[in-house]
Automatic annotation (TrEMBL), chain A:
It holds the Pfam family Ald_Xan_dh_C. Residues 25-134 form the Aldehyde oxidase/xanthine dehydrogenase a/b hammerhead domain. SMART domains: Ald_Xan_dh_C. This is Unannotated protein. GO terms for molecular function: anaerobic carbon-monoxide dehydrogenase activity; copper ion binding; iron ion binding; molybdenum ion binding. Keywords: Molybdenum, Oxidoreductase. InterPro entries: Ald_Oxase/Xan_DH_a/b, Ald_Oxase/Xan_DH_a/b_sf, Ald_Oxase/xanthine_DH-like, AldOxase/xan_DH_MoCoBD1, AldOxase/xan_DH_MoCoBD2, AldOxase/xan_DH_Mopterin-bd_sf, CO_Mo_DH_lsu.
From TrEMBL, chain B:
This is Unannotated protein. GO terms for molecular function: FAD binding; oxidoreductase activity. Keywords: FAD, Flavoprotein, Oxidoreductase. Residues 1-178 form the FAD-binding PCMH-type domain. Pfam families: CO_deh_flav_C (PF03450), FAD_binding_5 (PF00941). It comes from freshwater metagenome. The lineage of its organism: unclassified sequences, metagenomes, ecological metagenomes.
Length: 793, 289
């Protein structure tokens, strides 16, 4: 009898998450749950100032406290050549400050003690004398001719600029603007925000002097990269470094970079010869680890009066904080910002990007953004709406006439990407139908009678996922492939390991489903293991929605390799030649005689007990997958909102999400990802940001100021699906982890702007807090969250 | 969380608790719900030598309307109890409206009404409610009990006239002469966020006529704002568009907002005025029971 794929937990089964068995019982094993014998505890003293020269550090009172084992300063690290470490963007970052502090929250000293209370108390005893320097909190200040240089540690550094970078065809784009009937312009700021994993960053470093082995338990989304980096920084032989990531309590990109705390804990363990645990507190996490966004845009669009887009210009200015520590493909200085307008058929485009250092925390690409695709899509959709308004054209119609048509795929975008497939109009139509777009004008008029303002906002997004292909994507020279290793036991049960690392995202469930789909082994019979660099094959990790596009593909490929060997075993068992063997899910049979067959489990047993002469025993393999192209999911999000004009408070009346992420492995998990992503999108649009005051004090360094929406205010989301299989991915999947966070924010913002359209307002910077909406409404003017940056370019 | 080191005592009687506070000479702190104290310990904004946990003292967990119509709220009454109390929802509309807006649902199961008043956070909902309702606290110290009127209680942010060796054991809301009406509105960016502006309105009505009115504000000044003077616009009159507008303007004039990331001073003042109007308008159109 043919196997029922859904019943065995294969492709398309909304299988319950196997990892939840331990999570909902409180039996997850997070890094703080790991306790090693004789373990010490580390606490970091952070800078209270944004920019200051360190005049002196007196640690004597801390050393004097009973239970204190080690007090580390930047000077002590410098003596070991560890005061600075490389970042993932070819810059350097201070591990512990030696000369200056460059942002509030920067690591200054570390105390290692018998328990965390003593370590914290001892930090309070350290006296640091600072000479205050003028802080720089935005790119305008950074670019000023008389600006203090933040990175005076770097030879050859000019001013506070990190980079100038451009892409696209400038002269052709200039020409398009000359020929345009209408030019639409908009300026805006995508404010700084921050991931909020429930578990902060942390590690336990355990250096064993007798064996020379360094084991680090760490909350990393990319443990294999960490091993390579530790080998470089700590100058330890790579075979003696083992990175173990236990369960991860959320990552969202926050746990990709290597932070000073990890390096200090490693040195602490080497010096004390004891395991050293460092667990960051929430404020430490919010104020010092990888943030997202903080980019200004000047966008221009050239159009014919019939609505056809002729060209696009984008000028971005990004604020990178004190160190250029973006975790992104090395070739692209502003990530994949040039993925903007990939869904639109645009003849030409040009982008000029400038990055600046400021006295703010370093990072820049964390928070579910796939290397700044979040900004790219937000900018794109805000520009599209402004352009439609400038033309006086219906916003849906304007998108429709400019979309890349289904049959145009694969389509070369104006910035040079190659899309793979998509049905953009179909997604838009489903969304418009669901939101009741046709009746909206009547609805709006009715609400106006009640004194309420209604708005409808559309956002579409297409996201290049799966970095990468090795031609273009590398991090510090390491090509961005991924891996899977599959071992079938003699009973037909299996162990699967990959180079990716789930972070609460359901890998243990979905990876088994891919194997079930390829081999017919029930998903419940497959154990998935990730995150131990001594056992898992090398991979680049989990971020940028790349697990399914890359590691997921490697899993399908390794299963096919295993199946190829199983076929030989089947031929042997059935005593026919391999060419006469047919495959159906979970079973080989003799062509023309379907009754006569053996199961994959029979083949597994034979691999250990009855292999043909000359065949290597065992049934296992490994696959490294280098994707031929990026995958291109698409989504259309539509929000309908209502504004209370007396307060500026806006409520979401309806939200429709149409996602095409290709073939869905586990629809339930996909829906969960979309719901979570839309919640984060709503947060950024409505309430969430990190800003800094004039002195460089962070506003948003704790959860009183940095707001996460609760179930109370989060709107309901209606989900719809379209499936366009990815033509080059072995199972047709495209990835979905970030789509909703990427595409969601512009739907909310566009909806509010639509409601305010008649008031002469073109832009309110996120978050669209009631006071900002009220200000725009009453003044008829745009509201900027930060001083607008004007680029001379 | 890693607070500074402190001693912890959990006395079984009020007398014992007061003794501990007295011995602490100002370095001991009462723990009721811990709504604000625990986060402050965590952030090391507070580092008392001693915590006196009053949760094991019996007899402090009551909501009681006396025969004279006055309302008595014991020191261990949680916000959630007020939110779910049928008596409160029938007889004390200002408190009934404020209860579901205090903090978030999880905090409401622990935080206490009296503790919130004693914390004297300028953003506190209950201090504003108490001022609008002209309430008082019953406090007990080594020398016995005394009453402190709410208008004399708050000195400034986190500062009150409570002595270090006293515990507030009860909040008392006086009985209305007619029927208690009113409401509470708060603008917050998210559940549990500190208020951008909050408005407490207490009305004492006889039919359509206002016998008494109380107003207080949170979030728009360095301490809870007493705007009870605005009652002059309403007492002896009916709630009409004109009297409502006049009262709302008087209340808004009392606000002392600061411009910050929650909004400009003018915006917050506008919200106060809007909310006063909304509460009064809602009460003017309601049928009086």
């Amino acid at each position: 009898m043919k196997l029922d794929e859904v019943k065995i937990g294969g492709m398309g089964a909304s299988r319950r998450r196997v990892e939840d068995n331990r999570f909902i019982r409180g039996k997850g094993n997070y890094v703080d749950d790991v306790v090693l014998p004789g373990m010490l505890h580390m606490e970091i003293l952070r800078s209270p100032l944004a920019h200051a020269r360190i005049k002196s550090i007196d640690t004597s009172a801390a050393w004097d406290m009973p239970g204190v084992r080690l007090v580390l300063t930047g000077e002590m690290l410098a003596a070991r050549n560890l005061a600075w470490m490389p970042t993932l963007s070819y810059d350097t970052q201070a591990v512990l400050a030696t000369d200056k502090v460059r942002f509030q929250g920067q690591e200054v000293c570390a105390v290692i003690a018998d328990d965390p209370y003593i370590a914290k108390d001892a930090c309070g005893k350290i006296v640091v004398e600072y000479e205050v320097l003028p802080p720089i909190v935005n790119p305008v200040q950074a670019a000023a001719a008389d600006a203090v240089q933040i990175r005076d540690d770097k030879a050859g550094q000019v001013g506070n600029k990190v980079f100038d970078w451009e892409i696209g065809d400038k002269s052709r784009t200039d020409k398009a603007f000359e020929d345009a009937d209408v030019v639409s312009k908009i300026e805006l700021h995508y404010p700084r925000t921050h991931p909020s994993p429930m578990e902060t960053c942390g590690s336990i470093a355990d250096y064993d002097r007798a064996t020379g082995k360094l084991t680090v338990y760490m909350t990393s989304q990319a443990p294999h990269i960490v091993r390579a980096a530790v080998a470089m920084v700590a100058e330890l032989p790579e075979q003696n470094i083992r990175i173990i990531t236990p369960d991860i309590g959320g990552g969202f990109g926050n746990k990709v970079p290597i932070y000073p705390g990890y390096v200090i804990a490693i040195l602490g363990s080497i010096l004390t010869e004891k395991p050293v645990k460092w667990i960051e507190d929430k404020t430490g996490n919010l104020t010092s680890t990888g943030f997202g966004r903080d980019v200004y845009l000047k966008g221009e669009m050239a159009m014919r009066k019939d609505g056809k887009i002729l060209g696009v210009r984008m000028n971005t200015i990004s604020d990178h904080g004190a160190f250029f520590a973006d975790a992104q493909p090395s070739k692209f200085k502003i990530g994949l910002m040039h993925s903007a307008f990939a869904a639109y058929d645009i003849p030409t485009a040009h982008m000029f990007a400038t990055g600046y250092y400021t006295n703010k925390a370093p990072g820049g690409v964390a928070y579910r953004c796939s290397f700044r695709v979040t900004e790219a899509m937000f900018f794109q959709e805000r520009m599209v709406q402004a352009a439609a308004d400038d033309l006086g054209m219906d916003q849906a119609e304007f998108r429709r006439i400019n979309f890349v048509k289904d049959e145009q795929h694969p389509h070369r975008t104006a910035f040079g990407f190659l899309t793979d497939s998509g049905q953009y109009e179909k997604c838009l139509d489903i969304g418009l139908e669901a939101i009741g777009y046709k009746n909206f004008a009547a609805e709006k008029a009715e609400a106006a009678k009640r004194g309420r303002l209604l708005g409808i906002g559309i956002s579409t997004m297409t996201e290049p996922l799966g970095a990468g292909n090795s031609r273009e994507y590398d991090i510090l020279g390491i090509k961005m492939f991924d891996s899977a290793e599959l071992r079938i036991h003699m009973s037909g049960k299996a162990l699967l390991r990959t180079g990716s690392r789930g972070q609460g995202t359901g890998h243990e469930t979905t990876w088994a489903q891919i194997v079930a789909h390829e081999l017919g082994i029930p998903a419940d019979d497959i154990l998935v293991e990730e995150g131990d660099t001594d056992t898992a094959p090398f991979g680049m990790g989990t971020y940028a929605s790349r697990s399914t596009p890359v590691a997921g593909a490697a899993i399908a490929m390794v299963a096919r390799k295993v199946r190829a060997k199983a076929r030989k075993l089947a031929a042997h068992l059935l005593e026919v030649s391999e060419e006469d063997i047919e495959w159906e899910l979970g079973r080989f049979y003799v062509r023309g005689n379907q009754e006569r067959g053996v199961t994959i489990q029979d083949c597994a047993m034979a691999a250990y007990s009855n292999m043909p002469d000359g065949m290597e025993p065992g049934l296992e393999n490994v696959a490294y997958y280098d994707p031929p192209n990026l995958t291109w999911p698409f989504a259309c999000y539509i929000a309908k909102i209502e504004i209370d004009p007396e307060t500026g408070v806006w409520d979401v009346l309806q939200f429709v999400a149409v996602d095409d992420c290709g073939v869905r492995i586990n629809p339930m998990i996909v829906e969960g990802q979309i719901m979570g992503g839309l919640t984060e999108a709503y947060a950024m649009a409505n309430m969430q940001y990190q800003t800094y005051d004039e002195e460089g004090n962070i506003i948003g360094g704790n959860y009183m100021d940095f707001l996460l929406p609760t179930a109370w205010e989060t709107p309901g989301f209606e989900l719809y699906e379209v499936v366009t299989p990815c033509p080059h991915h072995p199972i047709g999947a495209k990835g979905v982890g970030e789509c909703a966070t990427v595409g969601g924010p512009a739907a909310f913002v566009n909806a509010v702007m639509d409601a305010l359209k008649d008031k002469g307002v073109r832009n309110i910077d996120m978050p669209l807090m009631p006071n900002r909406v009220y200000e725009a409404l009453t003044t008829g003017k745009d509201v900027y969250g930060m001083p607008p940056v004007r680029s001379g370019n | 969380m890693y607070p500074s080191r402190f001693k912890y005592e959990s006395p079984k009687t009020l007398e014992e608790a007061i003794k501990l506070l007295d011995a602490g000479k100002g370095e001991a702190k009462v723990l009721a719900g811990g709504q604000s104290l625990v986060p402050m310990l965590k952030l090391r904004f507070a580092f008392p030598d001693q915590i006196v946990d009053i949760n094991n003292i019996p007899g402090l967990d009551y909501i009681r309307f006396d025969a004279d119509g006055s309302l008595h709220i014991g020191a261990l009454v949680r916000h959630e109890h007020l939110e779910k109390s049928v008596e409160i929802s029938k007889r004390q509309p200002t408190i009934a409206a404020a209860a579901p807006l205090v903090a978030d649902p999880i905090v409401r199961t622990r935080g206490t009404f009296v503790g919130s008043v004693c914390h004297a956070d300028p953003q506190g909902d209950w201090a504003a409610t108490m001022i609008a309702l002209n309430g008082h606290l019953v406090v007990q110290g080594p020398k016995g009990k005394r009453n402190i009127a709410m208008k004399d209680f708050v000195l400034g942010p986190y500062a009150t006239t409570l002595n270090y060796n006293e515990i507030a054991i009860e909040a008392v809301i006086p009985a209305p002469k007619g029927v208690a009406r009113g409401g509470y509105l708060k603008l917050e960016r998210r559940v549990g966020d500190f208020a951008t502006a909050s408005v407490a309105v207490a009305l004492d009505m006889n039919g359509d006529t206002v016998l008494g009115a109380g107003f207080a504000l949170a979030g728009v000044g360095g301490k809870t704002i007493d705007a009870n003077d605005a009652a002059s616009a309403l007492v002896g009159q009916k709630l009409t568009e004109a009297t409502i507008a006049k009262a709302a303007a008087l209340v808004a004039a009392k606000a002392e907002p600061r411009t910050d990331h929650r909004g400009s001073a003018e915006y917050k003042r506008h919200i106060v005025e809007t909310f006063v109007k909304r509460i009064l308008t809602a009460n003017s159109t309601q049928k009086v029971a």
